[in-house]
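Our consortium's second objective concerns turning raw sequence data into structural hypotheses that experimental partners can test. To show how far this objective has progressed, the report includes one record in full. It was chosen at random from the queue rather than selected for favorable results. The single chain below, 241 residues long, was entered without modification.
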Amino acid sequence: MNQSFYIGSGRGGTGKSVFAVNLAATFAILGRNTLLIDMNPGMRSLDIMLDVECESIYHVFDVMNGICQLEQAVVRVENPSNLYLLPGGLMEDRENLNPEKWEKFLEETREFYDCIIVDGAPGADAFVTTCASACDETLMVVTPELTALRNADMLEDQLIRKRVLKRRFVINRMKPELVERGLETEASDINRQFKCDMLGMILEDDNFRFSADAGVPVVLKEKTYIAENFRKIAGRLMNAR
C-alpha cells in the first residue's frame, strides 16, 4: 500500500527540510521507491541538499499544469538509488495552486511510488493546509523554543479546521543538556501541548548541517545514532498502515 506524508512546521528554522530529506532517504534505503516533492515555492532547497541542482529543469507545478510529463521533471538521486526528487516551483506558483489539480496529481503520482514525502512551506496559511489535506498523514516538525511551539500549535489548529485528522509531530534539534539545566522545554511538556501523538525525537547534531551543505543525506552513514533513529521513525510510519 502506497503512503504519502506531508512535512510541515509552524515557522522556518525548525530543520523541516533536512528532516524530510533524511526521512525520504531512509525509506529509500529500506527498499521503497520514494518520491520527495518540494512544495515550498520560491524557497526550494532540496535539490541542493541532494546535490542534483544541475539536473533540475522542470518542477512540480510544470507537471500539474501540463507543461511536461512527470518523468521529465523527476530527478533520480544517485545514492540512495531508490530516491527521486521533484523540484519546487516559483514564488508566484504559491498563489496559483489549484486544490483539485494538486489532489489529482498526488493520486496519479502515487501509482508509481511506494512512498511520497511532501516537504511543505513553513507556516499555517491556506496553501499549507491545502497541500497537507491531500496527503495521508501530516508530520509536524517542532523545536523546543517557546515561540516555535506556539507557531506549531497554530499550525495544528489550522490543520484541524481543514479536517487534517491524521497528524503526528517530531521534536527536532533537542539539547538534553539544556533540558537538564531547565533552559529548554521537556519532551513530556511538549507532548501535552499537542492534540496528536509524538512520532520521535531528534537531537541537535552538527552533522545534519554538514551533510546538507555537502548534498549527502546524513542517514547514509550506517550504524550511527542518526541513521538508527530515522529507521525507527520510518518503521513506525510503515507499521501504521
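The partners drew two points from this record. The two ends are 8 Å apart (CA to CA). The mean pLDDT is 93. Both points have been shared with the crystallography group to help prioritize constructs.
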